[in-house]
Structures are given as C-alpha cells and as structure tokens.
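Pasting as-is:
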Amino acid sequence: MSYVKTSVGYRRRSRRSRVRKRRVVAFISMFTLATLGAWLWNDAKGGASGPRVAAATPSKTAPSVVSWSPLELQALGTQLRGAFAGALTGAQGWSLAVVDARGTQLFADRSGNGVAPASAQKLIVAATALAALGPDYRFQTVFAAQNHIAGGALDGDLWLAGSGDPSLQSADLRNGVAMLSRAGLQRIDGSVAVDATALRGPGLNPHWAEDDAGQDYAAPTSAVSVDGDTIESHVLTGGVDEPMWTPMSDVARYVAGETEHMLAARGIRFSQSPLLSPAPLGSVVLWDHRSAPLRALVAHMLFVSDNHYAEQLLRAVGSRVMNEPDDDGGILAERNFLQVAGIPADGLHLLDGSGLAPGNRVAAMTLARLLAAEEPVLYPLLPLGGRQGTLADYDFTTALGRVRAKSGHLSNVSSLAGYAATLHHGRVAFAFLIDGSPADPDASIVRAVDRLVEF
C-alpha cells in the first residue's frame, strides 16, 4: 500500500509536502465555508459561541438511526474481527469501537483500553476548541504603541502582540509593516518589542520523543507564531533545489529580529534593539490582523494533520476555559469538555494536543462517542477517505467516498477514527487504534472500514 504506515514515512513526506500544505490553506478555507453552507442547508447546527465551560454542541433534532438486529450485530462483529485478525496477532495493544449516531455501541474490542492514538487525538482538541472558542472565532495579532504616529515618528516602543494564531505568516507581518509605512511611520523612538505573554509554557513539549527534535512537524508553540515557527532553507537534492524547514529555537526573539528587518526594509528607523516585553494596558492599536475563522483552521489541522495548529489550539483553549494558557490548562479543558458531554474517558492520559507524544493514551470508545456527539461540527471538517488530505492514499474499495476520518501514525502506531456511511444503517462513528503490530495494521483498518460500510 502507498499510504504512510509509520512516523518514519511521515517524516519523509512531511518535508516534501510542507509547500503543498501551505498552498492548501486557502483552498481549505474556501472548502470549509462551502461545506458549512451545505451543512446549514441540511439543518445541522454549528459550535457554541464561546462559553467559559466547553460543552457538546446539541443537534436540533435527535439523529436518525436505523436499528440493527442481533443477527446483523453478530455479523458485523464477525466481519470486523476477521478484518483485524492479522494485525492484532502479536500486537502490543489495541482499542476498537463502532457506535451509531446516538453513541450506542455496535462493536467493541477492548474499546475502553487507553492506547497510543497518534494524530487521531487531534479530534479531541478540535472539538474542544470549536465548543470553547466558537467556530467563528478569529485569532488577533496587532502592532500597538502607547501613542499614535505623529510627524512620521512613534514616541516609545512598537509592540507586536499575538494571541496564538497558528496560521500567521511572514507575509502578514510584511503587510502590517507596509500599512505602518503608508500611515507615515518613518522613525521609532524606542524598540520593536514582542509580546508573547498570551500563552505560556515551554516552546517544545518535554514529552515528545528525542528523535523528533529538529523536525519540522515538531515546531515550538508561541503566542506570536510565524510560519509555523519554522525557518525555511534550501538544499540541493539530486540537482534539485528543495525547501527545508527547521524549528525556531527562540520564537519570540527570532520574530522580533525579523520584524526589525522588515521595518528597516521599509526605511523605518528605530533607536533601540529589539526586546521582549508585554504591551501596556490601553495601548493604541496601529494594525490588527485577524486569522481565518476557527472552523477553517481546524479543517486545515485535520486535513493535513498539522501538529503545530493542534498545540497552539490546546493552549488557547486552556486560556479561554481554565484561564491557564499552557498545556496543563488545555488538557484540563479537554477533560472538562468530555465530562460535560458525557463522553467516557476510560484510560485517558493526555500529554499534548497533537498526539505526537508517545505517552498519550486514548480509548477507542472515547473517540467514537466524541465523534457521534459532535457529528454536526466535526463531520464537514474531516477529509474524504481515499481522496483528500492525509487520507488521499488510503486504498478504500467499498468505502471509497463513504468515509471521512482522521488518521494517525507514529512508529508502531496506526489509527483511524471518523464516520462511515453504511449502506443500510446510515452514518456510524468508528475508532480503530492499533499499537505495536508486527503485521500491516493500516491494511487491516482499511479492510475493516470497507466491510463496515457494507452493512
């Protein structure tokens, strides 16, 4: 099979696909808005508008469910156990679950066991963020000062303050600097100061594997995040100039220096070196950049499995729900969300937002019940199996075009969780997580989904 089976394969492909990922952001934003229109047309309801306590998003009406007879459930179990037999023989652990639209169990095999979920874990931060912040939420990044520009000069420092926007690009900052120039700014009688106090905690999660250090998919987290907190360089490979990205070592200071260079390129002078400093209360906003709506950011994260987006969202959720803008606050917010929604959390052990930490543990029933409860919110934001995003290379047969899901891969971990449109029983939610299989777990997962949709 041609799809990625391990983190090693993903690492190779992540570098080649980074350019494609950046280009696809605009497409995903348009896709999400178009999908949202269809979603609303079909009488589904979006996320909450931003409650302090994250809660599940209720549907307007109870989901339509076609009942399963005992014989059908028995046949489903037989078919799925047969599909997984090769992958589970000798596996270190697994957790498998299928539920109907109301969350009623249809199939389970160790469904309450917590196992490493890899990137399927992103479903938790996606649902929590949409409920806590609201699907229309936009991150803000501003240039601010204590005074307005007067006579071409700014008296005091110029602050760049961020709220954790994972999508901010260098081009956005250059546009901001251009606006300052057009507003007449020629001289800053102070410093360029970066305010990254909206989020806190170490840039790199200490629970990530050592061999992930320096990889573009393991970038740091920061309130002022630019270009995914990575630095672009170029290498010659077989005579071809290929772009490479490496994580920034000190995001705030790097961004401060780059902002100073952008100002200098516009002929804007400054009297002091860049610094890190919180913007004072009552600052005058000179430029206000807003991200795409959160639903578009979440769609991007789920389509291309963007770890950086997940980590940024985790801390933003911690700030909103728990007033703790760090990983611990975000994880508490996720647990709160699951509890309020009545979603089981057996075996749950979370260390990050992305699923990159090998010590994460999530049970299949947690993800399956989450998917069922949040179907109106999550379904339109997931890639189509065999056709889009990280699922483009999955070789579905009967399930082609009938499944939307989130994949996950680490070394010795394979997972897939999402929705399958069955032939006779409507849409069901599933979560298939397999750790340490000596066989081909991805092939078994694909085979299981193909058999599932036939019911």
